[in-house]
Structures
1.
Amino acid sequence: MNTQANCDFGMIGLGVMGRNFLLNVADHDFEVIGYDLDPEKVEALNTEKSVSHVQTTNELTAFIQSLKSPRRIMLLVPAGKVVDSVIDSLLPHLSAGDIIIDGGNSHYDDTTHRMKALENANIHFLGMGVSGGEKGARFGPSLMPGGKLEAYEPVRVMLEAAAAKVEGEPCVAFLGKGAAGHYVKMVHNGIEYGIMQLIAEIYDVLRRRGGLTEEQLFTTFSNWNEGALQSFLVEITSDIFRQADDQREGEMLINNILDSAKQKGTGKWTSQSAMDLGVAIPTIDAAVTMRYLSSLREERIKADKLLKGPELKKTEHQEELIAMAHDALHFAMLVTYAQGFAMLKKASDEMGFDLNLVEVSKIWRGGCIIRARMLEDFMQAFAKDDALLNLMVSPAIAEILNRCEGKTRSLLVQCLQQGIPTAALSSCLHYFDSYRTSRLPSNLVQAQRDYFGAHTYERLDKTGAFHTLWGES
């Protein structure tokens, strides 16, 4: 291969995501080079690469020598120790001002530590969330870079070219300081967990209570995707109900998939960070919990024979149930996004990210897994009020929530009466009701804490901390 410094961009890690993202950049007439220790992955890229603009190697020195200065190197390798190992192998070969981009699902704390360590070596580091899966990486993902602006500028043109486009605007923006990019991607994944669980619960209600066939489910979700619920996750859900099982003739694949969902940990990270911040994200918490419960399949099968609940009856009012389910999903998706954006607002203030939530909404409109029509409404809400603490109190969003809450309640009453679990959907209504309640019963919690632990309490009519010798009056 040619070892002259003629490449604009380098990729380390030629798995599915790395290979596709590199080809995406090359499609926009940038000279690129891919590196991987695995000769088979290098060869796989060679067999499908564009005729021009792409070089490959499994020799690190050749990879480094092929890059123009400042070197722009992106990593798409497994998060954790592998990232540190790759960085360590690169450092002896890099020069001041070179740029490393971590495009994996790294924990934001790791990104912060790496950024500081590389800054001492005069190497720029960007933590960048990448969303869109295999197809998004190839044809246009949503990109969420964070770090220092001077590190972003040399790669801006390439990232804007590779990113998804909505109305001609690239779905990438410099999001903020430090680990802002990976933090935003983590919350994105938490919202993704929440919405996926909500859709699964709605599917369960329509199937078990409504008696909808796979063809009816396909039609229902397809119709929903033409309106206010238009989103990538609703769209692929409709497609799933159309998929025949190629291993069991005459059956639909969805009915033969194990009801035990795995996870890679980003949803859990979101819940953990929210607890550290003191932010309520009950729908994301519920989604993580339900994945854990789904993994207990053998226990659930035994419990099903022992634990009793109401007898499930199919409704005679199928169309009414579908209408309730539509409004409930609309309500719940809005509330889930509201929780995620509220978390981003608090994290930005606490961690100094300087996030612009208009920009976050904008780059999530295309390419990413949680892209949805309602993100346009969120953009407008944050543009009108950049101090907005929660999307639910944006007048436009509040109007939709108020319109949908009645049918959401009605659907949940049926689920409760029929014994259909709706942990995520229920959490949305509880969050909504708690947030709109001006006086919660937490005064009793304060009193209890002071009673047994002398933790003190606050009063409505006076400032300061108070303690009472309970039971002595």
2.
Amino acid sequence: MVDEALTSADDELSAIADDELLTIGAFAARSRLSPKALRLYDRRGLLAPAHVDDATGYRYYRAAQVERARLVGLLRRLDMPLARVAGVVQAEGLEAADRLDWYWAQVEARIAEQRALVAELRDRLCGGTAEMDARFTVETVDIPERAVLIESRRPLVEELPTWIPESLDRLEAVARECGGVAGDPYAVYHAEVPAGSEAGTEGPVEACVPVADEAAARAWAERHYDGPGTARVQVEPAGRLARTRIVGDRVTLALFVAAFEAVERWVEAAGLEIAGPGREVFFPERVTAGPQGPGCEVAYPVR
């Protein structure tokens, strides 16, 4: 049995003898990666060694694997998560390039958001709160009692631009089957939305669409309920909102947060009290067309 195992190991080595084998140290030097990184990439299925010695556990790599190793290393220099790296290196040609482009577009969008946030923070640190609030006109509006279709989730900040419009589109399609959409759709933020590894620690966020026929909506929800995250129906009582509109071709996170804070300060100055979580109200034209596009509203229930 031992002889058979040794013969099998010898056969394996002979099969790859024509392709130069490198120790992990030599391969690390040639690929410009550390042995620690190579072990991690092996565990994640990104770059498995060509041979692992059963007795010693030593890893050996083919020289032909150097190009893939260098590609992984360069992608990691872009701070690309390992799961995304795997998607790129496992694809080929144009598909791999498209995956790289998609990732980098997300990076640039995040940087643009952070740049706007830096400008907002700089104004705040320089004591410009009054000037910042002057950008927003706050008013109150009464809302009637109404039935609302709701879909909830605990998303990350970076997921919101995709999840909210997709959820509202789904709910509006249901509302049209149940007497029609009975008001502007909105999202309710029950807590600060986290980023990165803090997923699931706060929230949730609710995507909401007022619906005309409550009975039809409840019947639909009963037929299609499939656990948490699926649509449900809730009656929103009549009340009052303090709101302000944000206009522009792009609503940044910094502007969004500043608008909420402006409403909060206005509510306090007016002698009112915030009576519920903040919300973002959308208009039928959810994609703005220019600097004076419809944008959105941010609001708080007040009493």
3.
Amino acid sequence: MNRIGVTGHRAIPAAAEAHVLAGLRAELCGPDGATHVLSSLAAGADQLFARLALACGAELTAVIPSGDYEACFDNPADLARYRELRAQAAQEVRLDFAHSTDEAYYAAGAYIADHCDLLLAVWDGRPARGLGGTGDIVTYARARGRPVTVIWRDGVLRG
């Protein structure tokens, strides 16, 4: 089974969007694409990844960091996409955190890294802005010997 996980920025600058989309599509929908994917379904990279993976026929495991995770969605459209994707998940893993904290996000990212064969990182290469950010999860995965593929357009920084 080819299990691919994701970590990535919630905001993808317009200058990087097409490159990120093409990179994700190549990894998920190519001849060696995913049969199973793991995502926390956060706004931005996670939702884009999950939508593409489902469209390419992969099964989705939703990794939910906390009991109040829905409260972290500021944008109603992002929350609606989260609910739609979660409803399409073949499996759901709910971590034992009551509240959406940096520790819960880190634990969810670590769970994804621990349970995939390849971690895709939609990442500009800069340090995480808080515990559990993309840079932290890439560091975690690499320290455990997990293959990580970074998908980002050179020269573009997140806002």
